[in-house]
């Protein structure tokens, strides 16, 4: 296994193989098997209506894989990929698998302060971007900054106008060796809690199980037409079941450039979309939009909602507004996925965040001492299983805190388990804000704020919000004159912080409330801002 990754202990690995969760195949079979079984069915539809069959996508991926090899990329090398929901993302994803090159999947919203540390940590040899986004942001400018800052980044590939960089490389397909299924296939990003990014290694066989089993539990079939409304690089839209699950089932993937009701409803109507996955604020937006938009959404059978808590009240309105079934998904890029089942009673679909995907998922709910709570009580969710990581990449110290000695991942989520095994997410103990599904590590934002000359101390907490679930409040203790929110956000943008991480509100205090041991009491600050 790649140096810097933590393998599963052999005893568990043998169990996961014996029980059939790990099949010894590489993730790429999702495309090769599809191409062999139903090559002429449509696999991929772009927003502009361009479409590729499974066979065409397979051929495209082979040409790109050969191109990557001829561009000098070697198996095991890492490449940071930051693309919007364009067809190139899908073809390139499989090309990386074939070439054995490991994509590190960044989100389009990330900026210098995220991408530079990612390239450093992964020692990326290349960086893939689009030319610009719809708002005119130029990723090539970001690429220039990244290349200057990180010498390991030898090459930049651009989808669109390459400027001084290279277009995506293609070449006549060449035979390539199959990867070891127990090896890392890709890296996902964690929402994180600390000041530095954390990379999640996902192996071929664990991610293959992840996509196939999710597809099965969500009822995906060859008739599934899945709308990618969230960023394709996010674990939810990628493999829970996401675009990989749709491909695994022989279905069709439809790419939406953004999750707005305008864009999504038009695509749902045009492509007769059957299933979409969204975060709660988008679900609220879509439900409201049905009142004044008149696209035909009758093809939509299932709306998956996850990434942040979807409250029971809006959850109970999905069927009456959008005319489809609701599936709650409580997942994490680290692994464990929970789904409400399609045949669950409405009560469970509306009031719970689902139950674990796999019979071999081990879930513990523990108190502050790490002891299991009484059944039905709430506590921290710990988990291990055949598709849950055993350690972040090159993060030994952090791993010692994030995992128990038995290899359980400490999720930082506070849950309550029902007798049926369904989990209700009740809160969080990790130092993170969940802003409508987008995760903001408090410490990271605090470090940026502390760099401001007028900031003496900073503490970032979530404040309740009807639509987003939470928004971000930055408490500051200042030197001299207090900066305004505008000044602070301009300062953070200048440092290359992604827009979703910018604080929504600023509160200046003379000093921070402290806990009994003298730490800043975020609980007291959160209470203060909740009013
Ligand atoms: P990440 O580690 O960045 O992949 O984010 C995963 C985290 O998102 C989980 O640990 C939860 O804190 C949160 N999350 C995901 N889905 C849900 C959900 N359905 N309800 C509540 N929180 C969720
Ligand atoms: O929030 C998440 O990270 C998430 C939510 C739903 C996720 O990774 C997933 C499903 O796979």
From TrEMBL:
Sorted alphabetically, which InterPro entries does this protein's record hold? AMP-bd_C (IPR025110), AMP-bd_C_sf (IPR045851), AMP-binding_CS (IPR020845), AMP-dep_synth/lig_dom (IPR000873), ATP-dep_AMP-bd_enzyme (IPR050237)
SUPFAM superfamilies, A to Z: Acetyl-CoA synthetase-like
AMP-dependent synthetase/ligase domain sequence ranges: 33-393
Q: Which CDD domains match?
A: 23DHB-AMP_lg
Q: What is the superkingdom listed in this entry's lineage?
A: Bacteria
Pfam families (UniProt xref): AMP-binding, AMP-binding_C
Looking at the record, the residues that make up the AMP-binding enzyme C-terminal domain are 444-519
> What is this protein called in UniProt?
(2,3-dihydroxybenzoyl)adenylate synthase
Q: What organism, scientifically named, is this protein from?
A: Amycolatopsis tucumanensis
């Amino acid at each position: 296994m790649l140096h810097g990754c933590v393998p599963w202990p052999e005893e568990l690995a043998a169990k996961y193989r014996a029980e059939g969760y790990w099949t010894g195949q590489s993730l790429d079979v999702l495309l090769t098997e599809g191409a062999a079984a139903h090559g002429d069915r449509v696999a991929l539809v772009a927003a502009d209506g361009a479409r590729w069959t499974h066979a065409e996508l397979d051929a495209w991926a082979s040409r790109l894989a050969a191109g990557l090899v001829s561009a000098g990329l070697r198996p095991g090398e890492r490449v940071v990929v930051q693309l919007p929901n364009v067809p190139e993302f899908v073809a390139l994803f499989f090309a990386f698998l074939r070439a054995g090159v490991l994509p590190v999947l960044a989100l389009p919203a990330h900026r210098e302060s995220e991408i530079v540390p990612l390239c450093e940590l992964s020692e990326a040899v290349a960086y893939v971007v689009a030319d610009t986004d719809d708002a005119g942001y130029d990723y090539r400018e970001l690429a220039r900054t990244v290349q200057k800052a990180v010498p390991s980044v030898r090459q930049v590939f651009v989808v669109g106008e390459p400027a001084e960089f290279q277009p995506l490389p293609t070449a006549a397909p060449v035979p390539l060796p199959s990867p070891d299924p127990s090896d890392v296939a890709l890296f996902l990003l964690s929402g994180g809690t600390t000041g530095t990014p954390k990379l999640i290694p996902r192996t071929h066989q664990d991610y293959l199980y992840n996509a196939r089993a999710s597809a099965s539990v969500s009822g995906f079939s060859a008739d599934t037409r899945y709308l990618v409304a969230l960023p394709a690089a996010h674990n939810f839209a990628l493999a829970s079941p996401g675009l990989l699950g749709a491909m695994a089932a022989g279905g069709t993937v439809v790419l939406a450039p953004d999750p707005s009701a305008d864009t999504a409803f038009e695509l749902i109507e045009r492509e007769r979309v059957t299933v979409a996955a969204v975060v709660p604020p988008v679900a609220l937006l879509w439900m409201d939009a049905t009142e004044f938009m008149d696209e035909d959404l009758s093809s939509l059978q299932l709306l998956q909602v996850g990434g942040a808590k979807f409250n029971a009240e809006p959850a109970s309105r999905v069927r009456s507004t959008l005319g489809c079934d609701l599936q709650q998904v409580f997942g994490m890029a680290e692994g464990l996925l929970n789904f409400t089942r399609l045949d669950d009673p409405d009560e469970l679909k509306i009031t719970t965040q689902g139950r674990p995907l796999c019979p071999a998922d081990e879930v513990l709910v523990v108190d502050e001492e790490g002891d299991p709570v009484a059944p039905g009580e709430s506590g921290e969710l710990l988990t291990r299983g055949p598709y849950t990581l055993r350690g972040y990449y090159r993060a030994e110290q952090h791993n010692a805190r994030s995992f128990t000695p038995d290899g359980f991942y400490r999720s930082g989520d506070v849950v309550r388990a029902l007798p049926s095994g369904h989990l209700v997410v009740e809160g969080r103990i990790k130092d993170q804000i969940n802003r409508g599904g987008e995760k903001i590590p408090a410490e990271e934002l605090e470090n940026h704020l502390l760099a401001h000359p007028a900031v003496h101390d900073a503490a970032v907490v979530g404040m309740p919000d009807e639509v987003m679930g939470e928004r971000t409040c930055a408490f500051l203790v200042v030197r001299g004159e207090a900066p305004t929110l505008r000044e602070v956000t301009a300062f953070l943008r200048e440092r290359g912080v992604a827009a979703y991480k910018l604080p929504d509100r600023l509160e200046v205090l003379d000093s921070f409330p402290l806990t009994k041991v003298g730490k800043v009491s975020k609980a007291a600050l959160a209470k203060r801002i909740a009013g």
